[in-house]
Amino acid sequence: MVVVDKDGLPVAASKKADCCGGDMTGLKKTAATRVFEAARDLFYHRGIRAVGVDEIVCKAGVTKPSLYRAFASKDDLIAACLEESGRESRAALESVLEEGGENPHDKLRAMMRHFARKIAAPDFRGCPMSNTAVEIPEPGHPGRTVLENCKADMRAMIAAVTRQLDIDDPEELADGLMLIIEGGMATHHIFGSQGPCATMVAASDALIDAYLAKRPA
């Protein structure tokens, strides 16, 4: 007879989760959800290459077979975590653009302030997509495909707004703003939120104003 605890888990599994630091408050979640949440947190704060399957299942408080029933491989789990990050980022950016009103200049300013706030957050550890791009250079990797699509989508959202401005080269401005965003996220790893990335808003405002100043006659 298997002895179970008050949550219906075998006692041995419960003890294993405790000693591994598993989140025992989430036992009613499915094993797949616990694996996903544990992996996403570990990948973001520790890095993808540094985190193995053993550590993920330990933190989740589940067994390896539970992980592989939900995700065919670690690579598929990486892709799933990035897809969720991408969905959240897009939803947040869409909300910012909607709140920015109808004026494209105001929308761009709101967008750049949105990214500046993200970078200044105490728990910010870089962009999950950019971090993964450094760790996974192999073309065709499931995670690489997700992050490339996500970054292309982000650039397209910026360009959709710059095209609404009466300027000579809206695509060039979109690329410039992308450079400021990506540069801010990258320099945060070295200098923190008070380093060069603290100038993101001022730099983007100056760039946008410069393009507006040379608008077609």
How would you portray this structure in words?
With 217 residues, this protein is mostly helical. 69% of the residues lie in helices and 0% in strands. It has ten helices and no strands. It is elongated. One of its GO terms (molecular function) is DNA binding. Keywords: DNA-binding, Transcription, Transcription regulation. InterPro entries: Homeodomain-like_sf, HTH_TetR, Tet_transcr_reg_TetR-rel_C_sf.
Topology:
Layout: H1 11-20, H2 31-46, H3 53-60, H4 64-70, H5 74-99, H6 104-120, H7 128-135, H8 142-162, H9 170-191, H10 200-213
List keywords for this structure.
217 residues, mainly alpha, 10 helices, elongated, disordered N terminus, Tet_transcr_reg_TetR-rel_C_sf, HTH_TetR, transcription
| Total DSSP helices | 10
Query: Rg, please?
Result: 21 Å
Principal-axes shape call? elongated
- The average pLDDT score comes to 88
Q: Span between N and C termini?
A: 85 Å
Order of helices and strands: HHHHHHHHHH
* Share of residues in strands: under 5%
The computed structural class is: mainly alpha
Summarize the amount of helix as a percent range.
55-70%
Biggest beta-sheet profile:
none
As residue ranges, the low-confidence spans are: 1-27
Number of strands: 0
DNA-binding region: 52-71
Keywords: DNA-binding, Transcription, Transcription regulation
Protein name: Transcriptional regulator, TetR family
Domain HTH tetR-type: 29-89
